[in-house]
Amino acid sequence: MMPAEGDGRFPATHWTLIARIKSTDEAVATVALEELCTQYHYPLYCYLRRRGCWHHDAQDVLHDFLALLFRRRSLDRIEESRGRLRGWLTTAIGRHLSDWRRNEARRANAGPDSERGLDFAAIEQRYEHERFRDGETPDRIFEREWALELLRQAIGKVGQRYEQRGRGALFAVLLPVLEGGGSLRGHDTATLAGAAHLSEEALRTALSRMLRDFRDEMQIAVRLTVEHENEVAAEMTYLMRLFQR
Asked: CA dihedral defined by 39, 43, 48, 51, rounded to 10 degrees?
């Protein structure tokens, strides 16, 4: 999630998303907002649907909410000490939903830049294939979907690393293992090793390195959503619990 130093977008630093969104550098703030929208739009959509919104209503509410974020009027007032970014977002969109319902708000104009890349038809289709449990609250669903988005993004970043190193074929071989939790148990190690043109021992070493890269990317992603470095470990532990629910 952090661009390489010198790519012209923003410095390779461990600022939180909130700090970068509130930056006086418009380019830094814009990239950070796009990053936030990409990471959180589907979890927020699930939250709204679980709060009783039909697809088109959820689309309208999320449209308005992201537009407000992109104008930076709300995020400029965030105090990081109030807690995790994900907690602020669910509270803020919950209030926005209440206002939207009370005023029957509708936006007639085309979506702002914050919706670039958001395919609401695909989002609805994805949501319809979810298998939520009856007792799951909107907040729990949001948090789990948020965790899954971080997971997908981290795996994507690892894939980019391997492509840049000319090892995309190895990543493709080990991807099912990574997506399945990182253990070779249940996989045909000999077949995987043959596909990667490695010995079984070399395959295990390669998997260990890939898992290290994956943990690095997850920590980078989590670091952007907390205020202090010493909160990263606790947030990673919390993420793992979400996956086990």
From this structure: -150
